[in-house]
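Please complete every field before forwarding. Incomplete forms are returned to the sender.

SECTION A: IDENTIFIERS
Entry label: holo-234
Bound molecule: pyridoxal-5'-phosphate
Molecule representation: SMILES string

SECTION B: INPUTS
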Amino acid sequence: MSSIADNIGSVTRRIQKATLQAGREPGSVHLLAVSKTRPAEDLREAIAAGQTAFGENYLQEALDKIDALADLPDIHWHFIGPIQSNKTRQIAAAFSWVHSVDRLKVARRLSEQRAATMGPLNICLQVNINEEDSKAGCGLEELPDLVSEIGELPNLSLRGLMAIPDPDQPEADLRLSFRKLAGALKDLKARHPGAGPLDTLSMGMSGDLELAIAEGATWVRVGTDVFGARPAKS
Ligand SMILES: *Cc1c(COP(=O)(O)O)cnc(C)c1O
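SECTION C: PREDICTED COMPLEX
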């Protein structure tokens, strides 16, 4: 079995190669190590290998790890799971990014509950890009209104869009899904220039990060290929 450090090395090389092949600037794509279900010791290994950004889906599990790793400086926590609106206070206090905002109510609460002294919370709007019934995320058609309202919230920095396209679709369709998200970001940037940096596309996971980078991803969220296969959900 390869070590977490080895895995980070090979994922980093994949990212570099895909970035180069896409003719994009070196360093323009960041690795978010998705550490859901992983014990804090695994994260320590990743941190020792130089990884600083971790994505977590479940709030209580994340808070436990944040606490366990509080001795380490400069770790950035990204929340990437579904958000219940009664959990926003803890999310606003413990994370530097939230990739999975999909409605105004949650954005308003995160802004109200973020301490101004911490600096703005970076957020992405999650888009249900393949309009799957089972998936979180807003529709593409909701984006203009959401962006103009969220752009006014003082303690949020609207960084961009996130999506989890249906991984079972043919590669050409998957690519098209990434391209659609990139196109949506470009439109928003043109139409709502004051709403926030709008410089981020959070898309691509272990199986499709190359495709996502070819279409403009700036954060790839990688779990399995960093930490190994997750145990099946019971
Ligand atoms: C689990 C998860 C990932 C990582 O998926 P892998 O296929 O293990 O790389 C990425 N994004 C989100 C939102 C996830 O929940």
